[in-house]
Design a protein that fits this description.
Elements: H1 2-27, E1 34-36, E2 39-41, H2 53-86, H3 92-122
Antiparallel strand pairs: 1-2
Helix pairs in contact: 2-3
Length: 128
C-alpha cells in the first residue's frame, strides 16, 4: 500500500513539474512587445504621461507572483497536514501538533490577505 502511495505521489509531482515547465515555455515563447518610455519591453506596459507607472506595474507583478507562491505553499501545507492526520493513528500528541500547524497556516493566510488588501489599495489602479 505504501509503495503504491509513494509511486502515485511521485507521478503526480512529475506531472506538476512537467505541466509547470510546459506552461512557462509556452507562455513566454511569443513575446508581446509594448512601449514604455520609448523602449520596447515584453514585461511591462506603461504610458508616457506618468513615468512612475512602470514601477507600479512591476510591483503589481511581484505581488501577483508572491500571491501565487503563497497559495501553492498553503495548499501543499494543507495536503501535508491532511496526510499526517490520516496516518497519525489517533495519537493525541500528533493530532494536537497537526491542528496547531493548520491554525498557524490559517493565521498566516489571513495576515497575507490583509497585506495584499493594503498593497492593492496603495497601488494606483489596483492590481490586474
Amino acid at each position: 500500500m505504501m509503495k503504491t502511495l509513494k509511486m502515485v505521489s511521485k507521478i503526480m509531482m512529475m506531472g506538476v513539474l512537467v505541466f509547470g515547465l510546459a506552461y512557462t515555455v509556452l507562455a513566454f515563447s511569443q513575446p508581446v512587445f509594448a512601449d514604455c518610455g520609448g523602449v520596447q519591453t515584453s514585461i511591462i506596459n506603461c504610458n508616457e504621461t506618468d513615468p512612475k507607472s512602470g514601477i507600479f506595474a512591476i510591483l503589481g507583478m511581484v505581488l501577483n507572483i508572491l500571491t501565487f507562491g503563497v497559495g501553492i505553499a498553503a495548499t501543499a501545507g494543507f495536503i501535508f497536514c491532511g496526510y499526517q492526520y490520516m496516518t497519525s493513528k489517533n495519537e493525541p500528541a500528533v493530532i494536537v501538533k497537526i491542528k496547531t500547524r493548520i491554525l498557524n497556516m490559517v493565521i498566516g493566510l489571513l495576515i497575507y490577505a490583509m497585506f495584499w488588501a493594503v498593497i492593492a489599495l496603495l497601488l494606483p489602479g489596483g492590481l490586474n
